[in-house]
Amino acid sequence: HSASSTTMASDEVHDAGTEEAPIAADDDASPGSSSPDALPAPPTAASKKKKKKGASHKGADGAAPAIAATAAAPGAAPLPAAATTKQPGALQVVTAPADQLAERSGRTTATHKFWDTQPVPRLDETLDDDEVNDVIEPNKPPEELRREPFKMPDGFRWSDLDVTSAAILKEIYTLLNENYVEDDDAMFRFDYSMAFLEWALTPPGYDPTFHLGVRSDKSGKLMAFITGVPAVARVRGRDVAVVEINYLCVHKKLRSKRLAPVLIKEITRRVNLRGIFQAVYTAGVVLPKPVASCRYYHRSLEPKKLIEIGFSRIAPRMTMARTIKLYKLPDEPLHRVRPLEPRDVPSARRLLCSYLNKFALAPNFVSEADFAHAFLPRENVIDTFVIVTDEPESRSSPANGDAASNGASTATSNGRTASTPHGGDDDDTVLASATARAERVTDMFSFYHLPSTVIGHDKHRTLKAAYSFYNVATTIPLVDLMRDALVCAKRLGMDVFNALDIMDNPDFLKDLKFGIGDGHLQYYLYNWKCKQMTPNDIGLVLL
Q1: In angstroms, how far is the first alpha carbon of the chain from the final one?
Q2: Residues paired with 45 in a beta bridge
Q3: For the whole model, what pTM was predicted?
């Protein structure tokens, strides 16, 4: 996702669960016979499908975070949130509920043969019991877990990928750039930078065996990829060790080989061997069963450019000049914001963890090293800004996760411990050295950078998109804080600012002229059942 899945990806997620033909040399690799403890299929790039003119773009999450705004056609600009129109050849806003969208595309409950074998809630299952919040199937003891890797089709082999290696990162970047995300009209393609991938895949506690590739025996070329990143999620008050499954990508030439289900089963096996049996993931399609359904919203920062590249269009009765004026922002932030610094980490982490306590699904940044990795600014990757005060900070009420802040392991809801082979006390010691000098952080906003290549345009090569990450306002209204976020993003060269309707984000979307996206982003939990959530119950952003 996060913001990292696509319509193409979503198609393969669906297809992997509905076909029963063998996908590898051994029977265990058949999706029709997948083991009940298999982790879910994250979004992957499937074969490109042509749409009729006028159909909506959908990006990696099915909601087109960086690939389409509310409506798009060459020579047009984004609409305010409430504006919807129909024009020949223009992309229209999709407003149907997620279940209706699934039915229209033929993805009904009857087609989920694979998912019906998995420990996930059924689509027709009602989840409204506040008391239900636990695993679906008990975690398996080590002696019941498969030790040998799943067999690959002839001509291919597994490859553990060291994402700290520049050469390996370049291979991953090339595979994703050429095969992972592209809109249906071949106008935009996600362009994950090598620095972004390293940031996303190497938080403290990451496991290098969860960065899994498939290579050609003949050429040695990287042909497929999947990742799992260990994390701790708080689910309705319970801490759960999970993996965030992401970046499932198979080379376009190999999709007939049905490698995706084999990748999923192998990453499942590896994750289970580390004592983790739950996962969190997002997708644009409706599978059994979303814990929540959310929407993307888009705010133009450079409307003229967005119009020129066909990302968005001019609303009826508007001109280019009036559109530019409509989206004009102040030249400077209205408040005294500055970039997050290492000395701010303890205070900023407590602020965010305290804020996230009110949400039903949220991350638990269990250490200062976790928080520092996620939020300290990295050029063209992540930016975090804070408002501070000189007033002293009380430590009498530790924020969520402080009890585990210096530990290298995290207890799950059933008492198991998830191993964390990287990171730990040394990182926290370095950060702690600056604590005495730290001012108190009272407000913060953050966004990450995910550009797209503009395909075949003679003037513009890149669409620069900022994605809202985590934001907390305590001394000023959230709408004022996020106006400053838009200003800072524009000053950093961003063309569009994207946000989900999760957390308290709806409080600023309308006032700041965000336009609604054209699809839904479904949140899923694997091997976990709890009461259904609304977007404002969600406090988790997946990269």
Answers
A1: 5
A2: 249
A3: 0.78
Q: What Cα–Cα distance (Å) separates residue 119 from each residue in 68, 129, 155, 476, 525?
A: 34, 18, 33, 44, 10
Measured CA to CA in angstroms, residue 353 lies from 367, 380, 485, 496 at distances of: 11, 25, 20, 28
Three-class SS of residue 216? strand
Structure token digits, residue 148: 């040998």
How many angstroms separate the CA atoms of 505 and 298, rounded?
12
Instruction: Please give the distance of CA 195 from its chain centroid, rounded to a whole number.
Output: 16
Question: What are 233's two structure tokens?
Answer: 């999620």
Residue 294's DSSP bridge partners are 521
Helix/strand/coil (H/E/C) assignment for every residue in 316-374: CCCCHHHHHHHCCCCCCCCCCCEECCHHHHHHHHHHHHHHHCCCCEEECCCCHHHHHHH
Instruction: For 106-115, write each residue's pLDDT tens digit.
Output: 444 445 777 7
- Distance between CA atoms of residues 494 and 471, nearest Å: 18
Query: Which two tokens mark 79?
Result: 């609409």
What long-range pairs does 401-410 form, CB within 8 A, spacing at least 24? 401/232, 401/353, 401/364, 401/365, 401/366, 401/367, 402/350, 402/353, 404/366, 404/367, 405/366, 405/367, 405/368, 406/367, 407/366, 407/367, 408/205, 410/232, 410/239, 410/241, 410/364, 410/366
Question: How many degrees, rounded to 5, is the angle at CA 270 between CA 214 and CA 161?
Answer: 40
195, 210, 262, 303 from 169: Cα distances, Å: 9, 15, 22, 33
Strands 361-363 and 338-339, sheet pairing:
unpaired
Residues 408-435 pLDDT 10s: 334 443 433 344 444 444 445 445 544 4
State which residues of the chain have pLDDT below 70: 1-111, 181-186, 393-438
Q: How high is the pLDDT of residue 34?
A: 35
Secondary structure of 140-194 as H, E, C letters: CCHHHCCCCCCCCCCCEEEEECCCCCHHHHHHHHHHHHHHCCECCCCCEEECCCH
Runs of H (alpha helix) within 17-115: 98-104
Two tokens at 287?
């599978």
Judged by DSSP in three states, 63 sits in coil
